[in-house]
Amino acid sequence: MSHSPTASRSAPGKFLAIVDSGGANIASVRFALERLGIASELTADPAVIAAAERVILPGVGSAQEGMKRLRAKGLVDCVRRLRQPVLGICLGMQLLFESSEEGDTPSLGLIPGGVARLPESPGITVPHMGWNTLQSRQPSPLLAGIGPDARFYFVHSYAAPLSAATVATATHGAAFTAVVQRGNFSGVQFHPERSGAAGATLLRNFLTA
What we know:
It contains 6 helices and 14 strands. By secondary structure, the chain is of the alpha/beta class. The strands form 3 sheets. Strands 2-1-3-4-14-13-12-9 form an 8-stranded mixed β-sheet. A 4-stranded mixed β-sheet has the order 6-5-7-11, covered by helices on one side. The longest helix is centred in the C-terminal third of the chain and has 13 residues, at 196-208.
């Protein structure tokens, strides 16, 4: 288990856990939370994660490696059993789905559908890297206070399909799910920790909704 020396808990169960899944974006997620005045605990301890008020599942890299890391740390069933609000970021969001075409990988199965590679076409390169707006499909507390012109930073080659769980889409050649929510599990394909004021608003919404 990995702990932050600066993390603190105001009361039992009243803290934010970041799943130590080995993703390269963990440090930037923690810095973004610190800027919001939120203490977090980076941990791979299932008991600590289960006791958290809210949980963030970060991730960068391939779905195959992401699931391998979760299995190695005994976290697959832990994440599946969570009942508090959970936010998956980038690969963390993709792992919430049933499967990924990347490495033909079975995933957590918490949201129906399979993640697939973004299609390439003339003028559309993969990976999708850069800033993009969102198109809202249904209201969500995650997007409260975020206008239609807000831009978010994306870096990905695979994306989730549109479904009943899609909260908002983005378009890179074709539309894909950019924000998803099903029950207590939600996810964003972009990096809110690298998306300036709009990303900070989304993180704050997740922490307070």
